[in-house]
Amino acid sequence: MCGIAGKVWAEAGRPVEEELLRAMCAAIAHRGPDDEGIYRQGPAGLGMRRLKVIDLEGGRQPMSNEAGTLWVVFNGEIYNYLELRRELEGEGCRFRTHSDTETILHLYQREGPAGVRRLRGMFALALWDRDQQTLMLARDRLGKKPLYYAHRPEGLSFASELNALLCDPQVDRSVDRRAIDEYLSFLFVPQPRTIYEQVRKLPPATYALYRAGRLELYPYWQIRYDQVRERSLAECAEELDQVLRRAVELRLLADVPVGAFLSGGLDSSLVVALMQQVGQGQVRTFSIGFREASFSELDQARQVARALGTQHQEYVVDYQVQELLPGLLDHFGEPFADSSAIPTYHLSRLTRQQVTVALSGDGGDEVFGGYRRYLARRWAELFNRWPAWLGRGGVEGLGRVLREPATYYGHSRRKQFKRFLEYAAALREAPQTSWGFFLPRRKERTFTGKILPIYSTQIRAT
Q1: Partners of 126 in the beta sheet?
Q2: pTM to 2 decimals?
Q3: What is the C-alpha separation between 168 and 226, in angstroms, rounded?
């Protein structure tokens, strides 16, 4: 994990203060403890904090092309950089390093901003084209690496984290009330919004060009379903196995020790098994447990580690929510209510003492519909097709007469039943409703003052 930051003035002759770039980099020093780099030219300033993974000595950033006309800072990893490098060398490009970062420069020099379409990886990057006086920002296809920006008439600032962006005193900190509404719906603030009205997230699969005060965004990829052909279950399973195997193999490219998080669930267990199959040897796996038994998954992880023969390491810690929250809030920079952030933080901190890179199973539930909320939506849609005169009305009436549970949390049948009915009713009113924390009617009972009119307008619009 690395971090990038920077600023470009709209006025060509106005230099970026080095003190600002140093402050922005200091705010993300935890993302890149190994190195720091600064570049200033004309109206542009780039900063970078680096975690060394590939080409430990030659991959310093900001990195330039041979002529010094292109400069890039880059957070992430390009998995197909060796393939792109061979192609570019065949076209006459001369490489000075073994870093995947240099591939970005040569690709831009050959194909311009559109070359980002050919990058396969997880990344957030900023590239300054000195001749064109243009800044390009880009983010990977699924948005694994974060990138925030604030565009104002006098310039544009960007950073990997909100706290670094807020080091720029010109970034407005006014709270976006619509973001509060979205946060309560989804437990996070979806892109392109942030909790700050004048700050945005660069959407996934998008590059942006900033020149002379003007910012333009260009989507470069989207998921396509019209090209999927019908095939048998056996064919699908075989293709999925090949895709996952190749994905894991690509992510093992590193010049530092690599391990894996292991929870004992299907996702992380599959990743570890594939790491062994593609030639990683005995994989180093790491699991976290808590003294509170209800939060611990050590037994399941231990069984998988034993079955796969990994070099396994376990950690047992206190949940320490009160102590962790201030630090986590600094890292997230805005409201974020995924409770898995707490064990992930503990596990990452302890694993870092042993390896630099760790693979995980994150994303599996999103791709394959593993969360219970997906099943809840399916059942709610079926329930809504049941005519009220055939019994649905009676079920809803029963839900209304049941007393509200004493607490919103817990797993009582009564709470689940009432929540399901509330969710089904919300879907009939607003089909985009998510099984989040606050459903629409609960918001109406919660919001006051200036937030309520915004929320009511959104509901009417749906």
Answers
A1: 73, 137
A2: 0.88
A3: 45
Which region, left, alpha or beta, applies to residue 205 given φ > 0 means left and ψ of -120 to 50 means alpha?
left
b/e per residue 293-302 (b: at least 16 CB within 10 A): eeebbbeebb
Q: How would DSSP label each residue in 2-27?
A: -EEEEEEESSTT-PPPHHHHHHHHHH
Q: Is 74 helix (H, G, I), strand (E, B) or coil?
A: strand
Return the ∠ at Cα 341 (arms to 339 and 347), rounded to 5°: 125
**Residue of 2, 25, 93, 167 with catalytic role:** 2
DSSP letter string, 126-157: EEEETTTTEEEEEE-TT--S--EEEEETTEEE
One of 3.40.1190.20, 3.30.565.10, 3.40.50.620, 1.10.260.40 is the CATH number of 233-368, namely 3.40.50.620
- pLDDT computed for residue 460 by the predictor: 46
Distance from C-alpha of 101 to C-alpha of 48, rounded to nearest angstrom: 13
Instruction: Tokens for 448, please give them.
Output: 């006051």
Residue 223's identity, in one-letter code, is I
Give the Cα-Cα-Cα angle 19, 23, 29 (nearest 5 degrees).
140
Instruction: Spell out the residues 6+ positions from residue 130 whose beta carbon is closer than 8 angstroms to its own.
Output: 41, 42, 44, 68, 69, 70, 71
Task: Tell me how far apart the alpha carbons of residues 216 and 141 are, in angstroms, rounded to a whole number.
Answer: 18
CA 344 to each of CA 173, 361, 366: distance values in angstroms, whole numbers, following the listed order? 29, 12, 17
- Cis geometry, peptide bond prior to residue 192 (ω within 30 degrees of 0): yes
Q: 453 preceded by cis ω (within 30°)?
A: no
According to DSSP, the β-strands at 134-139 and 357-359 are: unpaired
Whether residue 236 lies in the annotated active site: no
- pLDDT given at position 164: 95
Overall fold of domain 3-219? Glutamine Phosphoribosylpyrophosphate, subunit 1, domain 1 (3.60.20)
User: Rounded to whole angstroms, what are the CA distances from 286 to 244, 305, 308, 319?
Assistant: 21, 9, 13, 17
Tell me: the pLDDT tens digits for 21-52? 999 999 999 888 888 899 999 999 999 998 87
Query: Rounded mean pLDDT of the chain?
Result: 86
**Is 263 in contact with 361 (CB distance < 8 Å)?**
yes
The total of other beta-carbon atoms located within 10 Å of residue 73's CB is: 28
Task: Delimit the domains of the chain by residue range.
Answer: 3-219, 233-368, 372-461
Q: Do domains 3-219 and 233-368 have the same CATH topology?
A: no
- How many Å from the N-terminal Cα to the C-terminal Cα in the chain? 39
